[in-house]
Amino acid sequence: MKLLIIEDEDSLLRSITDYFTQEDFLCETASTYKEGIQKATDFQYDCIILDVNLPGGSGLALLEYLRKHKKADGVIIISARDSLGDKIAGLDLGADDYLTKPFHLSELYSRVKALLRRKYASSSSVIEFDKLKLDLLLKTVSYSGQPLLLTKNEYELLLFLLTNKNRVVSKQAIAEHIYGEQTDNLASFDFVYSHIKNLKRKLKEKGGDDLLQTVYGLGYKLSV
C-alpha cells in the first residue's frame, strides 16, 4: 500500500512515516502545499493523509484541486481545528475522513485501514476476483483455496492489478506504485518483467494459468 503524508510539522511527519513504514506501507512525504500537490498529481496513492494548515496554501484547497481533477485517492484530513464547520467543509470537498489533533497513531492506522476496506473490499477486508482472494489485514493471498506465497513486491503488484482489474496497466504505472518517487532514479523497468514472470508462475502452479495477461506493447492486466 502506498501512502502520501502531507504535514508541515516535522516531528509528527516523522512519527507517522515511521509508524506506517513498520506496517509495510510505502510512505512518501511532503511538507508544503506546492510539494504536496505536485506529488498527489504525479502519482497514485492508496491513501493521502492531509494536514489543513500548510506553508503556501490550504490543505482544503489542495483537496478541492484533486477532486476537481478526478483524483480518486483516499484522503484523511488531520487538523488542529476541531470545529464542526471545518469538518463539514472537508467532508463536503471529498475527504473520506477527518481526524482532530492530537491523536494516537494507532487510531490513525485504524482510520486508514477502514478507508482501504471501503475503497477496495466493501465491508470486508478480503478482495476477491475469480478464484483469487487477497486479505488486506492479514496480507495473505490464495487461489482456489491454496495459499500463494508472495514477496512484498509481488504482493503489492498483485494488489495494484486487483484494484485495476480488467484494465491494462503499464510498466511505468507498476514501477511508480511499487517504488514511488524513486522510480525517476531507475535505469529501466526490467524488474517489472521479473515480478510479472514470477507472479505468473506462482498463479499457474495453483491453476490460474491465464489470470494475469500480457498486453504486448501496452502492459499487463488481470482478467478472466
Architecture blueprint of SSEs:
Elements: E1 2-6, H1 10-22, E2 26-30, H2 33-42, E3 47-51, E4 53-54, E5 57-58, H3 59-68, E6 74-79, H4 84-92, E7 97-100, H5 105-121, E8 126-129, E9 132-135, E10 140-143, E11 146-148, H6 152-163, H7 171-179, H8 190-205, E12 212-215, E13 219-222
Parallel strand pairs: 1-2, 1-3, 3-6, 6-7
Antiparallel strand pairs: 4-5, 8-9, 9-10, 10-11, 12-13
Helix pairs in contact: 2-3, 6-8
Description of the molecule:
The protein has 224 residues and is an alpha/beta fold. It folds into 2 domains: 2-121, Response regulator (Rossmann fold, 3-Layer(aba) Sandwich); 126-222, Arc Repressor Mutant, subunit A (Orthogonal Bundle), CATH 1.10.10.10. It has 8 helices and 13 strands. It has helices spanning 10-22, 33-42, 59-68, 84-92, 105-121, 152-163, 171-179, 190-205; strands at 2-6, 26-30, 47-51, 53-54, 57-58, 74-79, 97-100, 126-129, 132-135, 140-143, 146-148, 212-215, 219-222. The strands form 4 sheets. Strands 2-1-3-6-7 form a 5-stranded parallel β-sheet, with helices on both faces. Helix 2 (33-42) packs parallel to helix 3 (59-68). It starts with a strand and ends with a strand. The mean pLDDT is 89. Residues 124-224 form the OmpR/PhoB-type domain.
